[in-house]
Amino acid sequence: MKDVTAKVSSVELINHNVYEVKLETEETTFIAGQYLMIVLPTGEQVPYSIGSAPHTLPTLTLFILVSDPDSLAQKVIDHIRASDSITVKMPGGDSHLESGAFVEDVEHILLIAGGTGFSQMKSLYDSLIEQKFKGHVSLYWGLRTPKDIFMQEWIQQAQDSHTFSLDVVVNEADQEWQGRTGWLYEAVLEDHPDLSNSVAFISGSVGMVYGTLDQLETKGLQKERCFSDVFAYAPHPDKPEL
C-alpha cells in the first residue's frame, strides 16, 4: 500500500447513519474488492472498502457508517469534511476479482454483504458488469431494518437493467416492507440449493462471514472458492460439537 493524496469531492448523508464520500485521485489504481486506509491527523489508519469500481477512476466512492457520535467513524467524517484533500493508503486486501487466480470456468458468483459490507460487493458487481461477465451473478445484501437501506436508485437500476440478480434481505421487517426477510444464508440457499460450482465473496462481521460460510458449505461451496477480508485477520471460530 502506498500513500495517496485524494481530493475531497463530496460528503453526503444518504440515510439516517451512512455517509457517501466521493474522493478524486490521479495517483493510483486498484482491483475491484480492495480497500483503502484513511489516515487521520493522529496517525490512526481506518480501513474502508472502496464502493466504486476501477473503471470510475479518478473517482473513489466510500460508504461510511456512523452509529455513534463519539465513534472513530465520526472522527473520520469530521476529518474529511474539514479537509480539501486527505491522505489515504491503498490499495489493500486480497478478496478481489483476481483472488485465487480467479476461477475462469465458474458458472455462478455469489456476492454476500451485511450492512456497509455492501461497499465491497457493489464494487465487484459493477466491475463484473463492466467486464461483461457471462456467468450468473447473485448479490444478496442483508440489513437489520428497511430504514438501513441506502443507494435505493442504484438498487432499482441494477434490478431493472441487468441479468444479474440483486436481493435485499432485512432481519426485522416493518408493515411497509414488501421484500425478503430472515437471514442472508436462508435466502441464498432457497435460491441456490447446489453451490458446487459457485464462487462466493462475503463481507460483514466475523460472525456473519463464518456463519454464512458454514451454511453454504453444506450445499457444496468449497472453502477455497470463498473469499473474504475477514480471513486475513480473524481465525474461524471453533464449530460446536454435535
TrEMBL record:
GO biological process entries: bioluminescence
Keyword DNA-binding found: no
FAD-binding FR-type domain boundaries: 1-98
A Pfam family that the UniProt record links to this protein: NAD_binding_1
Family label: Belongs to the Fre/LuxG FAD/NAD(P) flavoprotein oxidoreductase family.
PANTHER family for this protein: NAD(P)H-FLAVIN REDUCTASE, NADH OXIDOREDUCTASE HCR
Protein name (Swiss-Prot/TrEMBL): CDP-4-dehydro-6-deoxyglucose reductase
Native organism: Marinomonas pollencensis
